[in-house]
Amino acid sequence: MSNNGHNFQHERSLSPAAYQRMIDKLGMSQVGAGRWLGVSERTARRMVSGDTEIPTAVVMLLHACVDYGISPIVPKKPRVLK
Prior knowledge:
Elements: H1 16-25, H2 30-37, H3 41-49, H4 56-68
């Protein structure tokens, strides 16, 4: 079975700088990437700063998006109801 030229043997981890480059390549901000991934703004910033390890599933998802040219749709910031 052909893999259509895609590399499915990516590293299972990313440095914070490589993570930032990938979300930049996908057109997302740090906060937007966090929203898309379902994590808090604080966690999103900590992944870029290196204070929080980037989960393997996130690494693989980002690689798949980049490899296949998938543009993530970032949800809008939820409104707080008063």
